């Protein structure tokens, strides 16, 4: 309540005590400060990690229809069931640009784990899909990952930072995250996934300002719960 409104309420109190009290309660109920855990912020940061959260909004990949709330639920209660291939176009990057991957952050949410790929300017095209065997681009070498399932995500026309370090980026569901190769302008990551219930976990890919976000469900798509 503002100072002016408060003074007015005091002046009227002697004549209309009950009405003044009712008006004061109505004004207080209509107000309210902003929450630091707003949905728009929680849905885009990496989660419970030591890195600072981001504040830019995200948009869904081209493989899924847009929705105001991903998969019809809140950011913490959402159930990811879709295991199909995901693709997305470049964003805020010119046709001759090669966005540079600056870092990767991993966080844990209530029903899924999140990987955030941070780029210097704009985001490249991407392809994300499960594979039976993960191969290194160029050499064709088989790359084993910890976990029951191999999920790969490729960034086309993107280059990793020379000092990029992918060590220590794992959770109980994401057992391993590895920069597999950089070949002919394509940066390939492998994600070893070990969800509850066995089988492939649902996942989604969204894009935000200078970042691409991968969410992987804690439970396999075909399991109960």
From TrEMBL:
Protein name per UniProt: AMIN-like domain-containing protein
Xref: Pfam families: AMIN-like
Region (Disordered): 24-80
Domain of life, source organism: Bacteria
Signal peptide feature range: 1-26
Domain AMIN-like: 100-218
Keywords, alphabetical: Signal
């Amino acid at each position: 309540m503002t100072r002016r409104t408060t003074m007015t309420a005091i002046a009227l109190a002697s004549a209309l005590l009950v009405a003044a009290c009712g008006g004061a309660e109505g004004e207080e109920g209509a107000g309210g400060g902003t929450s630091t855990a707003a949905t728009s912020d929680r849905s885009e940061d990496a989660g419970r990690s030591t890195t600072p959260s981001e504040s830019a909004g995200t948009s869904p990949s081209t493989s899924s229809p847009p929705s105001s709330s991903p998969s019809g639920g809140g950011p913490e209660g959402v159930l990811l069931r879709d295991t199909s291939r995901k693709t997305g176009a470049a964003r805020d990057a010119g046709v001759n640009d090669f966005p540079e991957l600056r870092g990767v952050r991993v966080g844990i949410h209530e029903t899924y784990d999140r990987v955030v790929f941070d780029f210097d300017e704009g985001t490249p095209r991407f392809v994300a899909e499960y594979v039976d065997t993960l191969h290194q681009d160029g050499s064709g070498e088989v790359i084993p990952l910890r976990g029951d399932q191999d999920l790969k995500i490729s960034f086309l026309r993107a280059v990793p930072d020379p000092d990029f370090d992918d060590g220590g980026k794992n959770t109980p569901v994401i057992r391993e995250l590895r920069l597999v190769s950089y070949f002919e302008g394509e940066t390939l990551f492998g994600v070893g996934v070990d969800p509850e219930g066995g089988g492939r976990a649902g996942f989604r890919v969204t894009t935000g300002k200078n970042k691409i976000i991968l969410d992987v469900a804690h439970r396999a798509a075909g399991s109960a719960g």
